[in-house]
């Protein structure tokens, strides 16, 4: 596994006998011990188990789609016999008794789990600033946030420690760090990837998502996670001719940093130049999506943590504890109103996409912010709370349950990555990958590496 080798190329080399699974895994472990440690990307390294698995693969069968490919797994996803802290003090010292469903599928495909990735505590935050296991650094500037809550997964991929990682996404937790670190992440159609063995944040919105350096790797990993779903391979010459793209009022380039607006507009213009069609629309039910999304997550997370919040409040980080306490005050009326709004928004967006192939938005209105800064300038002269700004584009997919792909589309003047979000029809991840491959081909961000 070389610095620029994809997961698919690594697996092909293993199948041809050019590289052994153990060589592939040891390369990843070496990088994790060096670069991964400097970024604080991992809570646990599974060195012994990973080497044993690699040797077992070499003795049995390497003829598997992800044979010998190392993968990082977010630390709220169960890996049998290994720590599963969910980035918390409360779960410190616990070990998973069995694999999560997605980890079992990874093993069946020949992938090798090499470590538990660092994360925002209990997956509830967009920075991966963790008071218990340390802050994850952004490989492009270690003084800036990597995003969250799957920050360790994104940092490990961006820094070339591993070609593949798993994260979880409730309100944007694979897509935020992907945009901030220049990696690719998919929030699948809700329910398409199993969540058995994953510590929950909000049951009705949680999903597991693949995180990779390239669109082709992401598509391959998603196919494994979805149980061998028939996802067409990404073509070497991607084509968007005839695809119908839409943008929406309130979900476009208002109040975003100039560099983000420029990169996303150029991305859309490039897709249209390659043969895609575009129109701008108005979504009537966008006005309350931030309130609805927060209400649902607050209430559902508070229910998960009710006992610990009562018995061990001091063991939570201050930010997560504040959110949990707020969640205990959500009324049944407010929760049901949020669910009603969620249904109306889904109906509207699904109807819109019946006549289109993807809704295009920026992934975030800003590039990576300095660690510790709680507000962000999203446009000249306009400052917003960072969390509110983060959720603006992400929650539309989280609330509707539709698939959403974050793809790097450029960088700002400081070289910090920018992501574009593609939201698609239910169960049509394949079209998102087709569009994403064109974005990748134009931006070439996957060919760049951060210098640490």
Automatic annotation (TrEMBL):
<dbReference type="InterPro" id="IPR020556">
    <property type="entry name" value="Amidase_CS"/>
</dbReference>
<dbReference type="Pfam" id="PF01425">
    <property type="entry name" value="Amidase"/>
</dbReference>
<protein>
    <submittedName>
        <fullName>Amidase</fullName>
    </submittedName>
</protein>
<dbReference type="InterPro" id="IPR000120">
    <property type="entry name" value="Amidase"/>
</dbReference>
<feature type="region of interest" description="Disordered">
    <location>
        <begin position="1"/>
        <end position="22"/>
    </location>
</feature>
<feature type="domain" description="Amidase">
    <location>
        <begin position="24"/>
        <end position="432"/>
    </location>
</feature>
<dbReference type="GO" id="GO:0003824">
    <property type="term" value="F:catalytic activity"/>
</dbReference>
<dbReference type="InterPro" id="IPR036928">
    <property type="entry name" value="AS_sf"/>
</dbReference>
<dbReference type="InterPro" id="IPR023631">
    <property type="entry name" value="Amidase_dom"/>
</dbReference>
